[in-house]
Amino acid sequence: MFIDPPNPFCDIKPMKKKRSSKIGLEPGSVVPVVEDKTFFPKISLIHYTQNSFEEIEVKSLLEIESYQKKEGILWINVDGIHDPKLIEDIGQVFSIHPLAQEDICNIHQRAKIDVFENNMYLVLKMIYPNIHQRLSHEQLSLILGPHYVLSFQENLKGDPFNSVRLRLKENHGPIRKQSADYLAYCLLDATVDHYFLGIDILDEQITAIDHTLLTKPSLEALHKIHHIKRELILFRKSVAPLRDSLALLLHEPPPMIKAGTVLHLRDTFDHTLRVMDSIDTFRDLLSGLMDLYFSTQGNRTNDIMKVLTIITTLFIPPTFIAGVYGMNFEYMPELEWKWGYATALAIMIGFVLGMIVFFKKKKWI
Question: Is the CA virtual torsion 209, 211, 217, 218 positive or negative?
Fold first, then answer.
């Protein structure tokens, strides 16, 4: 499904961030701020009405302009936002505001909703588990117009929209009977629903760490806790702004969003609240796991010190006796006694056995 390069726990290193190349440019300058520029952008087009469906791969913007003149809803999906000329050309075709074009090409955007004269711009993060059970983040930009929806993605790794495409193709549900704002809602809802896959992955990892700490705590478990805490921070940074933006949108919906779609958006907003609740719960659990780890390590250290202390204590009487009779005095009667060695050894052993019995009665060992 989604593919991402391997990134095991042991390879966690501080990230080096590139300095922005946008400093000093005028607002609305379309400068790509992306990580992968090695592939050609791919444009797909879906045009549908209540009774028809067409899906093509766009080779020229002239094809888009021809579909613009047709009745029905148009969905343009662009994979790859590193070509500023392409973004500007699409922006001219659909009258996208220069500030929105600038934001589309910058993958470090905070989730937000901007309403312009001709359309509405929404940016958020797609979050999904990769093949290594880690969370991948990819920026998604949506443009909602009167009869069209544009979606812009960073790369070709895929998206969570296959279910939406299938519903459009097979005419399942009300999607082909609704307007463009309902399509935008479906894309948004599919993206938010994939957040729960990330929540499930984190839940499984936290449960596994909890079991490990109770059975065999190790430094590796601590590294995993630190990794998941970083994942949760990034997760929260993506979901919290989206929750706030949806709250503002629902409080004062723009004219291009119909009342029926607003009701559906309330359900999506509720999903973001549930995701945030899960993230906050996981943060509390991780804090508890950190305390459990250090408590377990402290108890282990105490057990080691207890054993060493008992061993040291057991050797104090024999050491004392050996020290007394090891002194180099000329007159020590016991040194010339026939049974002196055996008696001293018996006293040493007696002291040790007596102390062991005493420790056991005290339940120290």
Answer: negative
Is the entire prediction scored with pTM above 0.85? no
Query: 258 in helix, strand or coil?
Result: coil
CA distance 245 to 119: 16
Alpha helices in 119-179 (DSSP H): 162-170
pLDDT digits (tens, 9 = 90+) for 311-353: 898 989 888 888 887 887 777 777 777 788 888 889 889 988 9
**Which range of residues forms the domain containing residue 91?**
20-294
Same domain? For 324 and 285 the reply is: no
Nearest CA to 122 out of 278, 297, 259, 241 is that of 241
Distance in angstroms (rounded) separating the CA atoms of residues 290 and 170: 50
Q: Which of 243, 68, 276, 79 is nearest to 161 (CA)?
A: 79
What's the domain count of the chain?
Answer: 2
Same domain, 248 and 333: no
Structure tokens at 71: 């009745």
Calpha distance 88→79 (Å, rounded): 15
Domain boundary among 264, 294, 324: 294
Domain of 266: which CATH number? 3.30.460.20
Give yes or no for a contact between 111 and 124, defined as CB atoms under 8 angstroms apart: yes
Please count the residues of the chain.
365
> What is the rounded CA–CA span in Å between residue 87 and residue 78?
9
Contacts of the segment 249-257: beta carbons below 8 A, 24+ positions apart: 249/113, 254/115, 254/120, 256/119, 256/120, 256/144, 256/145, 256/146, 256/181, 257/120, 257/144, 257/181
State which of 263, 294, 325 marks the end of a domain.
294
Cross-strand bridge partners of residue 54 = 47
Predicted confidence (pLDDT) per residue in 292-313, tens digit: 888 888 888 888 898 898 889 8
